[in-house]
C-alpha cells in the first residue's frame, strides 16, 4: 500500500466524523496500460472535494462530475472505463488505451461506516494485514484475516463479492541526513512511501527541507526501537557515521522491516559486519538481513545516482524480485 492510501482513509474518516457522506472508489482491475494498480483508492464528498486518484485524471473528472450531478446513490456501483461494451463508462476513452474497472461505495456517516474506516486506518498503520470484503449487490462489507501473499484484489463471481487486501502503508525510515538522504527522500516520496528522517544533529537538520516528510530529532536507533517499523518498512542508513549507522542496524534487525541497508564500500561493509558481530551481538542470520553495500550495482557515483540505486533495490525487494531476475 502507498502512503497516499493512508491519506485517503484519513480524509474519509475526517469527513465521516463531520457528518459527511463519502464515496470510496477502488480500482478493481486494469486491462492494458494504467497509471494506478488494483487496490488504489480515491475518496470524495458530494461537493466534489476529493483525495487520491484512479488514473491520470480523465476518470476522476468524469466520476466527480457525475457525483455532483447526483449519481451513485446506490450502496455499490461498478464502472468499467475505457470499455466500449460497458455503456456506463464508455464515454471516457483512456489515453493509454487501457480499461479500468472501479468499485464505488457510498458510505453514509453512521456508526458502521466509522468502525469500518477505523479498522482500515489501523491496518494501514501497521497493526495487521486484512482482507476487506464487499458484497457487490448489497454493499455489505466485513473483514477477514489475510491468508497470505496474493493479488491486491480478488473477484468472486459466483458469490458476487470482491476481496481487497489491506496492508501497512509503505514506510521509509532514513537514518541520518546526508546528500544521499536528500535524494532518497525525493525518490521515496515519488514512489508513494511515507518518509521519516531521523537525525539528532541540529546543524544538519537546520539545512534539511522536505515538505511532507516527518523529521525526528533523535538517534535513528531510538526511533526504531520505539516500535516504528512494521512489515512494510524499509530502513536505510546513509551517513558513513558508525555512531548513527551501526546503532540503527542493531535495532532494525530486531524489527519486521522488509529491507535494511547501510551505505559503504565492500571493505567498509566487511569491517562493519565484524563490528556488528563483535560489539553489537548480531548473529550471522542478522548480518544476512543487511543489504551492505546498499543498493543495486549501477556504477553510481553521485549522491543522486546512489539514491536511485538504493530505492531501486528497495522496490526490487518489495516486489519479490531476485537480483538474478533483473
Automatic annotation (TrEMBL):
PANTHER family: ALDEHYDE OXIDOREDUCTASE MOLYBDENUM COFACTOR ASSEMBLY PROTEIN, MOLYBDENUM COFACTOR INSERTION CHAPERONE PAOD. Residues 15-67 form the XdhC- CoxI domain. Residues 172-314 form the XdhC Rossmann domain. This is XdhC family protein. Gene3D superfamilies: NAD(P)-binding Rossmann-like Domain.
Amino acid at each position: 500500500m502507498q502512503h497516499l492510501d493512508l491519506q485517503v482513509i484519513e480524509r474519509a474518516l475526517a469527513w465521516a466524523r463531520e457528518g459527511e457522506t463519502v464515496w470510496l472508489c477502488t480500482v478493481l482491475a486494469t486491462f492494458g496500460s494504467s497509471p494506478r494498480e488494483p487496490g488504489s483508492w480515491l475518496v470524495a464528498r458530494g461537493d466534489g472535494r476529493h483525495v487520491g486518484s484512479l488514473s491520470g485524471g480523465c476518470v476522476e473528472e468524469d466520476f466527480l462530475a457525475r457525483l455532483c450531478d447526483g449519481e451513485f446513490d446506490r450502496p455499490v456501483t461498478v464502472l468499467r472505463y475505457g470499455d466500449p461494451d460497458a455503456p456506463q463508462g464508455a464515454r471516457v476513452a483512456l489515453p493509454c488505451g487501457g480499461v479500468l474497472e472501479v468499485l464505488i461505495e457510498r458510505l453514509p456517516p453512521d456508526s458502521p461506516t466509522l468502525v469500518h474506516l477505523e479498522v482500515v486506518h489501523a491496518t494501514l498503520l501497521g497493526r495487521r494485514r486484512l482482507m476487506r470484503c464487499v458484497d457487490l449487490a448489497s454493499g455489505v462489507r466485513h473483514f477477514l484475516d489475510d491468508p497470505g501473499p496474493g493479488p491486491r484484489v480478488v473477484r468472486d463471481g459466483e458469490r458476487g463479492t470482491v476481496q481487497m487486501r489491506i496492508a501497512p502503508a509503505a514506510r521509509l525510515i532514513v537514518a541520518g541526513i546526508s546528500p544521499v538522504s536528500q535524494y532518497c527522500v525525493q525518490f521515496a516520496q515519488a514512489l508513494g512511501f511515507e518518509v521519516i528522517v531521523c537525525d539528532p544533529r541540529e546543524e544538519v537538520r537546520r539545512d534539511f527541507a522536505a515538505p511532507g516528510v516527518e523529521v525526528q530529532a533523535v538517534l535513528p536507533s531510538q526511533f526504531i526501537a520505539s516500535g516504528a517499523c512494521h512489515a512494510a518498512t524499509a530502513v536505510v542508513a546513509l551517513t558513513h557515521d558508525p555512531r548513527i549507522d551501526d546503532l540503527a542496524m542493531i535495532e532494525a534487525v530486531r524489527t519486521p522491516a522488509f529491507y535494511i541497508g547501510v551505505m559503504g564500500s565492500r571493505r567498509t561493509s566487511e569491517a562493519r559486519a565484524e563490528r556488528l558481530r563483535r560489539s553489537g551481538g548480531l548473529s550471522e542470520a542478522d548480518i544476512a538481513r543487511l543489504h551492505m553495500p546498499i543498493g543495486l550495482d549501477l556504477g553510481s557515483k553521485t549522491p543522486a545516482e546512489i539514491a536511485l540505486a538504493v530505492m531501486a533495490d528497495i522496490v526490487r525487494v518489495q516486489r519479490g524480485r531476485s537480483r538474478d531476475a533483473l
